[in-house]
Amino acid sequence: MQKYIKQIPVYLFILLIGLYGGIKLSDFLSLSTSNKDLKKFSDVLKYTENYHIDTVKRSKLVEDAIRGMFSNLDPHTAYIPVSEQQSSEEQFRGNFDGIGIEFQILNDTIVVVSAITGGPSETVGIQSGDRILKINGQNAVGLTNEAVIKRLRGKKGTSVIVSILNPGIKKINEYKIVRDRINLYSVDISLMYNDSIGYLNLTRFSETSTSEMLDALNKLKNDGMKGLILDLRNNPGGYEDQAAKIADLFIDGDKMIVYNKGRVESFSEEFRAGKTYSFEKTPLIVLVNRGSASASEIVAGAVQDWDRGLIVGETTFGKGLVQRPIILEDKSAVRITIAKYYTPSGRAIQREYRDKKQYYEDVMNRDEEEINNLNHTAEKDSSRQQFKTTKGRIVFGGGGITPDYIIEPEKESEFSIDLRRNNAYYQFIRKYMDKNSKAIKAKYNDNLKKFISDFNLPDNAMNEFINFATSLKIKFDQPGYNRDKELIRLRLKAFIARELFKDLGWYSVLLQQDKQFNKALNLLDEAGMMINN
Prior knowledge:
Oligomer: single chain
Strand content: 15-25%
CATH topology of the largest domain: 2-enoyl-CoA Hydratase, Chain A, domain 1
CATH architecture of the largest domain: Alpha-Beta Complex
Structural class: alpha+beta
């Protein structure tokens, strides 16, 4: 017996050696298979590069191969080439170095739409409507958007000289502009629509979104906000942690906001409310539409699941996949889907995506019936899985966030759509303001309320607009015009308001006839009751 006991360490040693050898053999076989696959790809790349009838670029072949590799995966795993990566980073980082203008190219000429508030261009006196004719002494007429951006952007502290024609002065002046850090705000606008209702439009979830939201909400509260309409329409998403932090502004305690499940365990995580804010009892309505995706759906889903407020608008996009960005050696990047996210009740937001073409077409072709959907009867015939909100209301997973009140946007005629598609509004208002800017500014000065209540584009100007649209080869449609005349007039007024009062004017005018917004206004009392019941 003792003989066998003495041999146990030997057997144990042999077992460990066997296990180690098995692991190494497995690694070797895996590596061997991997090397075979890589050699196969390398061989095909070499043969194509050497023998194809056309001259081919290796880098292009590799990029195409990466796209091909991703083509049968989910719709949101993507390759970002170097040319797009910088602008993508800027969008999420929230800033870039430049002169601080928004511009359009009209008839080959760079026209300043707006100088960004507090930016270097506004500081030197550049205004809406100015034409940039030269950049650093070189002709700028006929440049593409990309060429303009390349010439105007540069490192903070460097300067650029622009030659500008102001139509009102009809004289070319030179401006030396020192480039600076330009912030890309994700809070597009926050305003008091009336004495008690605040409105805030969030366009994306970037690094600075939570701090921007907090600043805007504090200002609205100081201005007398008693209820908030948070507009996430056409917000495509962004950083998940920012979505969780923004939801935390309105959700109390340590409640779950969103959690992720991935194949790799380390990618599974959860985000909970943690901080206490003064907005947790503010009546809240979240506006969404089919362009609201990803992080927007996280916020809307958490608000709905906890019965914290009401969701109004259209069913959201249905993107419930989490991507991890990885920067490659040549500064290009890949965004690889690593997990699926779930709302507090356990709902998966992601739609079915086996057919990628159908995946995107379904959103555009979706037709919803306007309905009080507080108990989500609109989805009752759905095969989607059912869940319950904290107060027991039925909600559904697997197809985006369906609102508590489904409200379609205002329907426009094809004629109205053509006007927008061909940029007719801005082009006409640019000409109109070249002639009338001084008189309008003198009459309304800085009084937005007076402008909103008193200004109305006269019928003779409307006739001029139609003639202008015809000159752009837009076919006039009398029935469409008759139906949308006042909507067209309002949009033209909004463009003038933007020139006079920037985004504050633009939103203040357009919200007046915003069907979804006006529905939300009427529901704020009901949203308040949800908090107290």
